[in-house]
Design brief:
This protein is an all-alpha fold. It is built from 7 helices and no strands.
Length: 153
């Protein structure tokens, strides 16, 4: 039972049972996250798993598509100094084919390994610093974290 009442100071030792702290902002974030999860569960794409469950695919096609997408974006950072966010042409076709389950796992791994090798080659000639600016990275992390935490406030 939860009772919210003032306790006279002389009675605190015998009547105090605990301390309840209500963090409304954290509660709102958790509540929103809970609603988002159940909304996703209700509206998720069950077809995503049909090929896998039917034994037609031995990998998670969407996950593999994102893996290759990140490698393509990493290559873009090394080549142009900025990530690739929007894809077109043969890169877009490749990603859609992977997501559609049109490639065998071994073919996707070959693409990924080729991209990794290309990134390793580009890393040696890219105009990027050898080490991360930890102060700038920490500052960015704090800014992003605060923005994320305050999105519900």
């Amino acid at each position: 039972m939860l009772v919210c009442e003032s306790i006279p100071e002389p009675d605190e030792a015998s009547r105090f049972a605990g301390l309840l702290i209500f963090n409304e902002q954290a509660w709102k974030r958790s509540f929103t996250g809970h609603q988002n999860y159940w909304g996703w569960r209700k509206n998720r794409n069950d077809a995503r798993w049909e090929q896998q469950e039917a034994g037609q695919l031995d990998y998670d096609a969407k996950n593999m598509m994102h893996t290759v997408r990140l490698l393509l974006s990493g290559r873009s950072i090394l080549e142009r100094g900025e990530p690739m966010v929007r894809f077109e042409g043969k890169d877009l076709s490749l990603l859609l084919d992977i997501r559609g389950g049109k490639l065998e796992f071994e073919q996707i791994m070959n693409v990924a390994n080729d991209l990794l090798a290309e990134c390793d080659r580009l890393k040696s000639i890219a105009p990027l610093p050898n080490e991360c600016d930890r102060v700038a990275a920490d500052k960015l992390l704090v800014e992003i974290t605060h923005a994320w935490e305050n999105r519900v406030a």
